[in-house]
Amino acid sequence: AQTVTQSQPEMSVQEAETVTLSCTYDTSESNYYLFWYKQPPSRQMILVIRQEAYKQQNATENRFSVNFQKAAKSFSLKISDSQLGDTAMYFCAFMKQTGANNLFFGTGTRLTVIP
Amino acid sequence: DAGVIQSPRHEVTEMGQEVTLRCKPISGHNSLFWYRQTMMRGLELLIYFNNNVPIDDSGMPEDRFSAKMPNASFSTLKIQPSEPRDSAVYFCASSLQGSYNEQFFGPGTRLTVL
Fold it and tell me: Could you tell me if B55 lies within 8 Å of chain A, comparing CB atoms?
């Protein structure tokens, strides 16, 4: 079974500063995908960034980047130059590459960007 | 593209009533997922379909829950009879099986059972 753990229920960051959200996971799979989803107050689930486990290079999307440590089963999200619109719940998620392609979610981190 | 469409956006009902949630996936997608979000359990998979066929329904809480996908453009999640503990946000998501498997989520249905 796959499990995803987010150990930070809540975090805050000053506008324009950098924040890192933690995520660890447990799996026996060799190939898989990892995702970070953002859920603002509108409750819409929005994909922020994804990482293929077979790629050593960390994914980057504008101000968002990840630190993927496969051996440690760690997948943290770094948000640079935080903006007020980044205030949301952030969910880390895991998906197997083959077979069942549903998402396994962590419990989420509530991020507040302070003006 | 209109994205994944869910209806209704909000549903308030009384215990014992039947509730039907609806989902229209993105055209061309062949996988559809129903997730439930609660404070206690977070986001959890209820059931998913590939090519309109239910693949894994192990997350369906009990026999009161049922899901159908009669065609590639429509799915329903039914709760009969509903109970207060079913109160949650229900998300539908769709994807095209492939190298990225990105799932696109609908806006969710907030269900309140009184």
Answer: yes
Return phi, psi of residue B86, to 5°. Answer: -80, -10
Mutation target to probe the A interface, by most A beta carbons within 10 A, among B96, B103, B110 is B103
- Answer whether A44 sits within 8 Å of B100, measured CB to CB: no
Q: What b/e string do you get for A20-58 counting C-beta neighbours within 10 Å, with b at 16 or more?
A: ebbbbbeeeeeebbbbbbbbeeebbbebbbbbbbeeeee
pLDDT digits (tens, 9 = 90+) for A33-58: 999 999 999 999 999 999 999 998 99
- Per the CB < 8 A criterion, the answer to whether B49 and B60 are in contact is no
Q: Tell me if residue A86 falls in helix, strand or coil.
A: helix
Token duo for residue B107: 């806006």
Hey, are the CB atoms on A103 and B45 less than 8 Å from each other?
yes
